[in-house]
Prior knowledge:
By secondary structure, this protein is of the alpha/beta class.
Amino acid sequence: xxxxxxxxxxxxxxxxxxxxxxxxxxxxxxxxxxxxxxxxxxxxxxxxxxxxxxxxxxxxxxxxxxxxxxxxxxxxxxxxxxxxxxxxxxxxxxxxxxxxxxxxxxxxxxxxxxxxxxxxxxxxxxxxxxxxxxxxxxxxxxxxxxxxxxxxxxxxxxxxxxxxxxxxxxxxxxxxxxxxxxxxxxxxxxxxxxxxxxxxxxxxxxxxxxxxxxxxxxxxxxxxxxxxxxxxxxxxxxxxxxxxxxxxxxxxxxxxxxxxxxxxxxxxxxxxxxxxxxxxxxxxxxxxxxxxxxxxxxxxxxxxxxxxxxxxxxxxxxxxxxxxxxxxxxxxxxxxxxxxxxxxxxxxxxxxxxxxxxxxxxxxxxxxxxxxxxxxxxxxxxxxxxxxxxxxxxxxxxxxxxxxxxxxxxxxxxxxxxxxxxxxxxxxxxxxxxxxxxxxxxxxxxxxxxxxxxxxxxxxxxxxxxxxxxxxxxxxxxxxxxxxxxxxxxxxxxxxxxxxxxxxxxxxxxxxxxxxxxxxxxxxxxxxxxxxxxxxxxxxxxxxxxxxxxxxxxxxxxxxxxxxxxxxxxxxxxxxxxxxxxxxxxxxxxxxxxxxxxxxxxxxxxxxxxxxxxxxxxxxxxxxxxxxxxxxxxxxxxxxxxxxxxxxxxxxxxxxxxxxxxxxxxxxxxxxxxxxxxxxxxxxxxxxx
Length: 689
Ligand code: ADP
Ligand code: MG
């Protein structure tokens, strides 16, 4: 058994010298494993070998023949044309190459070859413009008489070269170490690694190729899920340093002070969190709930449970506006009950920052709210018990992990309004328990959504005025002109000015954009919240989390330029009170996709449905948050197409890890090695703390 062969440099493969090894390395192929796991993107069916006589004009065919003569002609335009007369036993025909000087040198009379290319018949003679050929010298033919692998090419690598060295590698591999547990083969009827590698490159028929592919898909998902499950197990085996008291005075006082009753879903999630608090292992919980579902109050209760247990809490939000909003909301509600909250963002001035850091470390501050500034080195807590991460899709896994460093084994609650389709949630959050709020608070009416062309703007503004007259407020979101914040800002300021002086001159128009100083931002948001601004013109900075229940109109200009997730988030800024709200998408979409997105928005307000649609339109790689989540890219698996396999792989992985948490059993050694080689790095945050 030469399992080490897989780990060796490609230079160990026959006919790969230093120069070719360098070319392969440029294409990202360093080891034998890299080469063998560089799967064909498709196969060309060259099983049928034809005779020249049987071919029709214009078809692409495979022919076999013996070289009679070879001629090289220089055409008028300077092309070197190599013309080889071939005899296939019945007939003589010509094979033609362009600018391939090796032909004359290599294809001496008497050489047997197989070619493929386009067949032309003129004046009773057959001529083939060669696309690919191979010398038929009695050895194994790689490029003909079979399903021929076609590799995704890069740089100077040719199909012919890749086929040849893959074949050599396969021959020298003899019995690679099988790492998948035997039971799995039986259960899922997968081919062995040896057969699968051979079949994925040189299948005898398409059924074999399919089975091989099935194995590699399963293998990939299984190894990944094993890595996740191991992390999960590892996290669970830690011990919390702190204990929580049973529901105490502070959280009870807070819940009693709320102007509403918690919904059943909110209560259910509170119970789930309480159970995690009581467990000796730290909590790792994802709280999913559509925009406006009321996640904030749940997280506040959780933070207060920490505070009344003598611990500190941290709340991290993706934007300054959102952090400020959380801070202001908490300050208003919690100061009364004696809880100290502080805000830490990148733009807090140095002196104040130092003061806050000091009070965090000596335990004076109970809850620290902030942006990424929270994960900076200088922030130290006295006894951090709970971390809440809001709108978690905006953060990478790594950032979440860094915050966990701040304390030995804090409880972690991450919240997201991005409705992650079930199929993906498993993969993305395999290391978290998931709580879901599906119920919206009572009395909410679904937002009415319309899609109109810019020609209807006057009517749209009419609706805005009508609502403002009723005492409500409106958002107008400006088109994303470019990726550039500067240009966005300009467009927003101009529009605000234009509207304030014209259409809405009787009303109070405000402007909000990312470039405002935090104090100014806060001032604008505070006036909007206090209803001192009727119409807020804004760039997409209001996208996440902003909560002003009195706002009932959301106008989105050039709506087709936004992604579905973003549109859904924006729409979520209205419909937060008992009043009927409206969302107007203004656009003249130029692409099919743009039209499809607007249509989906008017069809449903269900975030999960929209997420599925988004996935369909854009593919999982583009899915909001997937890329930022720090997940590895999959080579063969496709999370959408292979969701069944993903579920099976997860169940299996959990079962194996339950039995042998760190895959320590000797018979799992190869499996563990494979997990490490393929996915451990991708989720290396496993080793935090
Ligand atoms: P999200 O889940 O998007 O973060 P928020 O926590 O901002 O949503 O809540 C949206 C609005 O719903 C807030 O104004 C909040 O006060 C209100 N809210 C939350 N829970 C309830 C409830 N049980 N009954 C009535 N209103 C609620
Ligand atoms: Mg929120």
